[in-house]
């Protein structure tokens, strides 16, 4: 069966495998294969593989000893993996429990099964979960060499944005001042700090800030991370002109915080602005809002316009990388 794989020179194979494992991209249903001096590593989502890797398609053997949920159910269930947790979105309680039982009984390294019990809600964007297997909603997630402890019932976190986060992280250089206006448990802040940046992360959710501090400790970067629980509009005046880079990942309402972003921006600052807009004009509203807030104090230039993912029918989650020069 043709399977998407990352092809790596044999001598680089273990480092490549480890990096893909850190990003939770290895497909456990297939065997790794060595052929003609290259290691072929099966991956679950070829679109999420960093651009530096060589993605190919080739036949691979299925793992004979591994029992999958599909083997037990007779159909392929839909779920998302986060650390050792499987996340379901099933309206039928009986079907959800059937899938949960099969996941636990399979050979997959999953210990917890959670089913979405509400939509994302409130200022902190959390949702309710039904625990179908395991002790609770706290998980450990590994992403591109960083480790994050988080409670899905207390904080917002999307593993689907791992590739986008890594795209931004790879732009950061040592000694930058980076300000994350809606930091959550630190999926931007922690890898920024690991690259040597001095980081400030702000969030209105006290649980998220507690986890951000713990994750800074777990990853050995607590000396480069300042975590503050507050409305970022209240915090911004204390960091006037401080930031070389600002992350604004609050796509439904980031425009309401642009005045604070302009306050924090230094003389030459890159702004990563996330938005959700109609597919007919996904980037225009964000650019106009940024220009209205920043000009004429800053020259505004859009360096990148990127569609992150489809959000809803005819709606796109996008990012604008914008340079502000005083």
UniProtKB/TrEMBL annotation:
<keyword id="KW-0949">S-adenosyl-L-methionine</keyword>
<dbReference type="InterPro" id="IPR030382">
    <property type="entry name" value="MeTrfase_TRM5/TYW2"/>
</dbReference>
<dbReference type="Pfam" id="PF02475">
    <property type="entry name" value="TRM5-TYW2_MTfase"/>
</dbReference>
<dbReference type="InterPro" id="IPR040601">
    <property type="entry name" value="Trm5a/b_N"/>
</dbReference>
<dbReference type="Pfam" id="PF18093">
    <property type="entry name" value="Trm5_N"/>
</dbReference>
<feature type="domain" description="SAM-dependent methyltransferase TRM5/TYW2-type">
    <location>
        <begin position="79"/>
        <end position="326"/>
    </location>
</feature>
<keyword id="KW-0489">Methyltransferase</keyword>
<keyword id="KW-0819">tRNA processing</keyword>
<dbReference type="GO" id="GO:0005737">
    <property type="term" value="C:cytoplasm"/>
</dbReference>
<dbReference type="InterPro" id="IPR056744">
    <property type="entry name" value="TRM5/TYW2-like_N"/>
</dbReference>
<protein>
    <recommendedName>
        <fullName>SAM-dependent methyltransferase TRM5/TYW2-type domain-containing protein</fullName>
    </recommendedName>
</protein>
<dbReference type="GO" id="GO:0002939">
    <property type="term" value="P:tRNA N1-guanine methylation"/>
</dbReference>
<keyword id="KW-0963">Cytoplasm</keyword>
<keyword id="KW-0808">Transferase</keyword>
<dbReference type="InterPro" id="IPR056743">
    <property type="entry name" value="TRM5-TYW2-like_MTfase"/>
</dbReference>
<dbReference type="InterPro" id="IPR029063">
    <property type="entry name" value="SAM-dependent_MTases_sf"/>
</dbReference>
<dbReference type="GO" id="GO:0008175">
    <property type="term" value="F:tRNA methyltransferase activity"/>
</dbReference>
<dbReference type="Pfam" id="PF25133">
    <property type="entry name" value="TYW2_N_2"/>
</dbReference>
């Amino acid at each position: 069966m043709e399977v998407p794989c990352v092809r790596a020179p044999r001598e680089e194979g273990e480092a490549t495998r480890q990096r893909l494992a850190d990003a939770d991209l290895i497909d456990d249903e297939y065997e790794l294969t060595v052929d003609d001096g290259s290691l072929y590593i099966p991956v679950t989502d070829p679109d999420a593989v960093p651009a530096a890797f060589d993605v190919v398609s080739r036949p691979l053997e299925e793992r004979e000893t591994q029992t999958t949920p599909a083997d037990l159910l007779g159909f392929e269930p839909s779920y998302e993996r986060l650390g050792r947790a499987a996340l379901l979105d099933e309206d039928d309680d009986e079907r959800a429990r059937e899938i949960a039982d099969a996941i636990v009984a399979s050979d997959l390294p999953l210990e917890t099964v959670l089913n979405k019990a509400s939509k994302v809600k409130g200022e902190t964007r959390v949702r309710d979960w039904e625990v179908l297997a395991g002790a609770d909603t706290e998980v450990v997630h590994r992403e591109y060499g960083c480790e994050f402890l988080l409670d899905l019932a207390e904080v917002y976190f999307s593993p689907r944005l791992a590739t986008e986060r890594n795209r931004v992280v790879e732009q950061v250089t040592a000694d930058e001042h980076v300000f994350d206006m809606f930091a959550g448990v630190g999926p931007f802040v922690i890898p920024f700090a690991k690259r040597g940046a001095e980081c400030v992360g702000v969030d209105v959710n006290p649980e998220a800030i507690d986890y951000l501090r713990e994750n800074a400790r777990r990853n050995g970067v607590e000396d480069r991370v300042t975590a503050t629980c507050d409305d970022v509009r209240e915090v911004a005046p204390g960091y006037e002109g401080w930031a070389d880079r600002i992350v604004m990942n609050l796509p439904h309402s980031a425009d309401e915080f642009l005045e604070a972003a302009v306050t924090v921006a230094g003389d030459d600052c890159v702004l990563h602005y996330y938005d959700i807009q109609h597919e007919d004009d996904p980037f225009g509203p964000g650019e106009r809002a940024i220009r209205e807030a920043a000009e004429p104090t800053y020259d505004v230039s859009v360096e990148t316009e990127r569609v992150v993912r489809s959000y809803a029918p005819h709606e796109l989650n996008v990012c604008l990388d914008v340079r502000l020069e005083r």
